[in-house]
Amino acid sequence: MTRAAARAASHRLAPLRARSRSWLRCAPLITVALFLAPIVAGLLGTLLPAFGWLPAIGGREFTLGPWARLFSAPGIGAAIALTVGTGLVATVLSVVLVFGLCAQLHGRTPGRAGRGLMAPILAAPHAAMAIGLGFLIAPSGWVVRLLSPWLTGWHQPPDIATVQDPYGIALTLGLLVKEVPYLLLMTITALGQVSAARQLEAAATLGYGRTVAWLKLILPQIYPQIRLPIYAVLAYALSVVDMSLILGPGNPPTLSVLALRWFTAPDIRMYFPAAAAALLQLAIVLASILLWRSGETVIAHLGRRWIAQGARRTRLAPLTRIAAAAVAGLAGLGLASLIDLGVWSVADGWPFPQLLPKHWSAHTWTRQFSMVAWPLETTLIVAVLASALALLLVLGCLENEQRSGRAATLRALWLLYVPLLVPQIAFLFGAQVLLTVVHLEGSLIAVIWSHLLFVLPYVFLCLAEPWRSLDARYARTALCLGTPPRRVFLRIKLPLLLRPILVAVAIGVAVSVDQYLPTLLVGAGRVVTLTTEAVALASGGDRRITGVFALLQSLIPLAAYALAIGLPARLQFHRRQAGGET
Amino acid sequence: MSAVLHLERVSIALEGRVLIPPWSVGVPPGQVVTLMGPSGSGKSTLLSYLGGTLAAAFRATGRVWIGAREVTEQPPERRRIGILFQDDLLFPHLSVGENLAFGLRSTVRGRKLRAARIDAALSEAGLAGFARRDPATLSGGQRARVALLRLLLAEPEALLLDEPFNRLDTMLRADFRRFVFGHAVAAGLPVLMVTHDWADAEAAKGPVLELGTAADGMPVIGAARVPLAIDAARAAIPIGGDWSPSGKGADR
Amino acid sequence: MAASWKSILAQARGQTVYFDAWAGDVRMDAYIAWVGQQVSACCDVTLRQVPLEATSQAVSQVIAEKAAGDNTDGTVDLIWINGPNFYALKRRGLLYGPFTQRLPNYALVNTRDPSNLYDFTVAVGGYESPWRKAQLVFVYNSAYVKHVPLSIQAFPAWAKRHPGRFTFPQVQNFLGVAFLEQALYALTPDPAVLLRPVRAADFAEVTAPLWAWYDRLRPYLWRHGREFPASGPAERELLEDGEIDMMPSFNPTEAAADVEAGLLPRTVRTVVLAHGTIGNTSFVAIPYNSPHKAGAMVVANFLLSPAAQARAGNIRYLGGPTVLDLAKLSPAQRARFTSLPASPWVPRRAALQRVLPEPHPSWARRLAEAWERRYTP
Per-residue pLDDT tens for C51-87? Predict the structure, then answer.
């Protein structure tokens, strides 16, 4: 009897768990190994030289010398102020604008058309957007041309720093153009998970207007879900390199650009202060996140009091209208920037202050094709392989999670966000040394791995929700019909989730095409993508050619999105209900 | 082919709370045993357990047999226990015919033969010519029937019904009940149904049990306090106690 | 000699040469792409340009590889290099060579020109092979300004009359620091000290007149001297748009080529300062750890061929003086150079005769550092 009892007790429906294939069980492990181990090692590889230790180039004792060197560098104070200023201002403004717009427009969103307009801005890589914006707002750009000379009287561009200005205003604007749509998308996604409409209705019966009700009821509910994306934006804005190179000032530049400059200085000893600068960058990001976190607490406290007061009106209402207008303005700037890229790419002579080119020609496209071909091919290979690899790992993790019945914890989600929160520059240098040791430096594989670090989190975040919310009984029904799990996965889950899967891959491609610093550093300059080329060309060159590169760079993610939306419609015609929510 | 579905001291708990007390029952072929109980009482969890898809958070003990075959530790796809849910769960990306083909066992070979089997099943269910239709274009009753056909084409050895009539309106419900029970009896399948609708239980014409709460707050399963004209004598299956299928008790 | 070149050609067959070259000038990229097609056709060598924003990136790459013990399998096969970058690698013994005597076409090089033998006063010693010549010139838009300063001393007064209409690249860029060096040449009492390492001189004393002059110039620079274009091409863009009227350039034929390419208005003109300007030669060098040295030498040799030099001298492609000695060429080869299209935008040949040697490489860094310290907010 006891034996029987023990045996019975052991049943506990272990079969499900026991059957998950070993490779599947390894999926989360592989993912973490591919992910965190190199980041930690990379950080270490930056930490040690920051304190003077790098025997390979003669650093054999721990010293504070690199820090002394860092803080005595000319303009270091201004560089730090610029970094913190642009990063914080861009993030605060992004968040305020997005919340303002949502409070203003909730339930009245111009749905399809609005999203259609946002798509190109979301898809365009940061570098391309920065280049386009630079073209647009330069003293000789479209904006000034539009007003000259009839209004301004300028026959020559004015000597005003509208780009690369010492205060980083252009850089902040560039960050806003890209990050506002991103946060808006995250907010809309989070809104889908609370029954906002019904709650707003309930609030309306109590006499609350939409805007107040949104701020008091909906915002507190969705904030926890967009906290991580906000931190990611904050970390990004504080440490971005490509946008800073294109739109930020050069004398002094932001801290991350300064670190990059020193890392690539001919004098190898500059590696030490460069490592210190990268570490300082990390410290600034962490401190800013902490600052933000405490700000959240204060605002939550004040907000609770505000809610308890029961006020039906708010003086914020006109502000939300301004926010909505500002977002529309930013979207207009973003779209105009991309169009400006296109116009430059087919311009044939475009002297100031003419509004449009004197002649149009496709010469630049046809003549540059041989120069574009190689970077284009590399860009596509890296993007497709990194996304495919990420998809494989994510599907492995999700399927394993479902079969083992253990969902990823919140802590695991934070791990996923590590590459998005740690400044790239802080671990990529260390990682570069590691790659040199294993002779993978400058290889395509290493670059694909470095992209995977950033592609994987987005693919996971994009796919986890639809995957988990797929009615589990579909799979159960199929299993009960005698279908082995592998076939259920292939025949039921994959087709049902085809659209979210393709969208996740498209986002993966977009994220990969966006990567500048990883490609530059891990690729050791040998792996040349449209992105590295576009940034290099942006530092000065033929704007027509820069336009070709930047536009092409933007078209790849856009094409990927179009395919992701269009393909399922062609592949499946019985899809009136297919779990197509993305 | 026909065999009894046996549950041997099956019990399920969630985080230390017992949902299903140790329960033994045998369901003979062609017979419908109904388990009544309020929603949220764990009836559906029991069916998940029997089907082999219980979530890991639950702890289950006991053994399950189909005839002499123990399925307790088998993966769901090997158990040959079909479950019909209150939602039809037709795969939306497949046509009606493809849904049925997904269910039809692969031992039926050849495209023509398979198509013939599916067409036969459809016309027998009054759905002739529906094979190429998108499930979304079917009415609720039609979808429910396709769901059952899909299940039967998989040739299960036992059938579990998880409030399958709940979603249908009254007229369709009686119709579909007849359809389900008729097919189940014709196929000689043991059927275990969970429901909270007495009309379902009555139509099943089998023994009715109830998952209730004892005085001490623990769940118990006992004969239902039948408010209808069920012949109590037909509840001939031993209920409760330490039942085990004959011949299988010897190895203990 | 011939036999050893044959064996080099044989070794080079099938190799892929990674050529780390400053990028950002599209015509240069196109020229390198053309070189790639030629060496692929003649010698089965695949040339891949690794585009650099600054040559120092390749230098730190080689140094990092040395640090990591990567002594045979480096990632850089050929570098477009000169001046401080050459000095940085040569000083550490990180260059392969001497190899130039093994290149058949090296026999055609103009060895009477000191800048082909001394790179920023450092003896080349066969560790780098010349391929381009450069000299500091000033390009201006004659549509807006009729008179330009012909001496360094005249710059502040001119700038005061044309505020915001002149700038030069940031000092981290070679062109930016070259402008400072040019000014130092003209202003310091004894320019000869510039040919020796900076530590041999009293830096503060030597440069004092430079800073005094710059302080007078600075308020009238573009953006009040607070911001600078990142590079020569970025500065060219400003001239194209009419944001500035004058800029320095290190290529006497750049303006002509840019006009041809539609990148500058036809009204631009190029001038050389009256007392001459700094000139230098661009070289290619092979890192000690390149796994494709034979292929790299084939490319270096091709760059010295009359065909490659003539194309580089043609303003339709690049434009610029050749490093070859025309006297050493056959009449047919010489004709390729004499028949090159003329251009109204190129300075008079005579003006280009007054070439000042580059200062010792150590000056460039000290000047850039001192400038950063003085003028970074």
Answer: 887 788 888 888 878 877 888 989 899 999 988 899 9
| Structural domain spans, chain B | 5-20+30-196
In this prediction, residues A493-508 reach a mean pLDDT of 91
Tell me if A1 is assigned to some domain. Answer: no
| Closest Cα in chain B to A491 | B102
| Touch A-C: 3+ C-beta pairs under 8 A | yes
Domains in chain C with CATH codes: 2-131+281-342 (3.40.190.10), 135-279+355-375 (3.40.190.10)
Q: Quick one: pLDDT at residue B238? A: 44
φ, ψ for residue C230, nearest 5 deg: -70, -30
Chain C residues in contact with A249 by the CB 8 A cut-off are: 227
Which range (A235-239, B67-71, C54-58) has the least confidence? C54-58
The domain tally of chain A equals 1
* CATH number of the domain enclosing A236: 1.10.3720.10
Contact call for residues C150 and C273 (beta carbons, < 8 A): yes
Using the predicted structure, report yes or no on whether residue C220 has a pLDDT greater than 50: yes
Q: Residue B74's pLDDT is what?
A: 85
Burial class of residue A55 in the structure, from the number of CB atoms within 10 Å of its CB (0-12 exposed, 13-18 middle, 19+ buried): exposed
Residue B73, chain A, CB below 8 Å: the answer is: yes
The pLDDT of residue A392 is: 93
Output the pLDDT for position C143. Answer: 92
| Residue B24 to residues A5, B10, B31, B209, Cα–Cα distance (Å) | 15, 6, 16, 12
Q: Tell me how far apart the alpha carbons of residues C279 and C105 are, in angstroms, rounded to a whole number.
A: 23
Q: Is C249 helix (H, G, I), strand (E, B) or coil?
A: strand
Q: How far apart are CA C167 and CA A213, in angstroms?
A: 56
Quick check: A478 contacting B, CB < 8 Å?
A: yes
In the structure, what pLDDT confidence band is assigned to residue C36 with cuts at 50, 70 and 90?
Answer: very high
Q: State how far the Cα of A221 lies from the Cα of B200, in Å rounded to an integer.
A: 42
Q: Which of A1, A10, A12, A13 to mutate to test the interface with B (most CBs of B within 10 A)?
A: A13
Is A359 in CB contact (< 8 Å) with chain B?
A: no
Check C69 against A536: CB less than 8 A apart. Answer: no
CB proximity under 8 Å: C 177-196 to A:
none
- Residue A159 structure tokens: 């000597």
A135, part of any domain: yes
User: Is A60 within the bounds of a domain?
Assistant: no
Chains touching chain B through at least 3 C-beta pairs below 8 angstroms are: A
Residue A443 resides in a domain: yes
Q: What is the ipTM of this complex?
A: 0.77
The CATH architecture to which B5-20+30-196 belongs is 3-Layer(aba) Sandwich (3.40)
